[in-house]
Amino acid sequence: MSVGLWIVIWMAVLVAAIVAEVISNAFLSIWFIASALVLTALNVIFYYAGIAPLMWYWQLLIFLILSTILLFSFRPVVMKKVIRKAPRTNADRNIGETGIVIKTVEPHGHGLVKVSGQEWTAFSDSEIPLETGSRVKVTAIHGVRLKVEKSE
Asked: Would you call 27 helix, strand, or coil by DSSP?
């Protein structure tokens, strides 16, 4: 194959990788973009220097090795910078805490509990009421209400 054809092939791979990255937005294809760009540039240099292209298997091997190195070297770093965990609110710290029922939490209804010195509206999926004075554990927060279950 001629160098010009290899340039077209690697440009097609480059465009396909760009489209895949835009669609997925997973920072997975970006490393193939870089590798295809390197091979396109390499073939452009060969074209203008009048040098015969590398054999197809060498080009494929360079592409695969370079893509793998970039993927495993830089993706974890990029993902740490790009993906941020949702900031925890002060209420989130109550998950897993134990509290006391101060107004009976009715089955599939709501009541009032005291957790970390604060009173909260609470609800439970329990089939039995959580009576006043019983200990409960906070399992989740939905809006301004705590989801609780009987503590053991």
From this structure: coil
Cα gap 14→11, rounded to integer Å = 5
Q: What is the pTM of this model?
A: 0.54
Pair of tokens at residue 93: 């710290």
90-150 CATH fold: OB fold (Dihydrolipoamide Acetyltransferase, E2P) (2.40.50)
- Count of CB atoms situated within 10 Å of the CB of 127: 7
Q: Which tens digit of pLDDT belongs to each residue from 8-63?
A: 999 999 999 999 999 988 888 899 999 999 999 999 999 999 988 899 999 999 99
Domain segments of the chain as ranges:
3-82, 90-150
The answer to whether the CB of 2 falls within 8 A of the CB of 46 is: no
Q: What is the pLDDT of residue 76?
A: 87
**Which 3-state string (H, E, C) describes 68-124?**
HHHHHHHHHHHHHHHCCCCCCCHHHHHCCCEEEEEECECCCCEEEEEECCEEEEEEC
- Residue 61 is predicted with a pLDDT of 97
Do 7 and 44 contact (CB within 8 A), yes or no?
A: yes
